[in-house]
């Protein structure tokens, strides 16, 4: 994206991000997933900037209000998901309650591995868009 600067508008930035995202391989997606903590956790398996850590915490903030049983079910679901698919459960958590994220996780566990990788990648796309919007709203963050 850096080579495409300057962009004429915010929509041009989002269009460029989508074009680049469409060119990524499954290996690229899996690499990106490593920079996310599991739902309900704070630390990612891979490198994560302090800014990304704060964003993840904000995006998952509604898990802090969840019942302990829901958080335990999410932890168990996270483990089952990773065992089944080989990568962490990715969902655009912004605005979702822990119960909603658990329902989505349970529904997605029945997907084929290929379909689920594509679902996870689309969730990554949503997260990327959300974070680009944040950067554009306040470039100093």
Folded structure, characterized:
The chain is mostly helical and 141 residues long. The protein has a single domain, classed as UraD-like, CATH 1.10.3330.10. Helix content is 60%, strand content 0%. It contains 6 helices and no strands. The protein has helices spanning 10-22, 26-33, 50-59, 68-85, 98-108, 113-137. It is globular. The protein starts with 9 loop residues before the first helix and ends with a helix. 20% of the residues are buried. The mean pLDDT is 88.
Quick gist of this model?
The protein is mainly α and 141 residues long. It contains 6 helices and no strands.
> What average pLDDT do the residues reach?
88
Low-pLDDT sequence parts: none
- The CATH architecture term is Orthogonal Bundle
Return the CATH class.
Answer: Mainly Alpha
Cα(first) to Cα(last) distance is 19 Å
Number of strands: 0
Looking at this structure, what is the CATH superfamily?
Oxo-4-hydroxy-4-carboxy-5-ureidoimidazoline decarboxylase
> Remind me, CATH topology?
UraD-like
Individual helix count: 6
Topology as a string of helices (H) and strands (E)? HHHHHH
What is the number of domains? Answer: 1
Helix content: 55-70%
Largest sheet: none
Provide the structure class.
mainly alpha
% residues in beta strands: under 5%
Shape: globular
Computed CA radius of gyration, to the nearest angstrom: 16 Å
